[in-house]
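Allow me, if you will, to draw on your knowledge of protein folds for a short while. Thank you for your consideration; the sequence and its tokens are set out here:
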Amino acid sequence: MRDGLQHAADCKAPSHLECPRFRRLMNLAATGAIKGAVSNKQ
């Protein structure tokens, strides 16, 4: 979490959606590959 926030603060991409690292992390979270990721399944 800390590293992700630090990257977001330092990232030079015009938007988060244009940042390859942010997009990779979002994809991992969406698939549940990141332990503790919140799922939309109910």
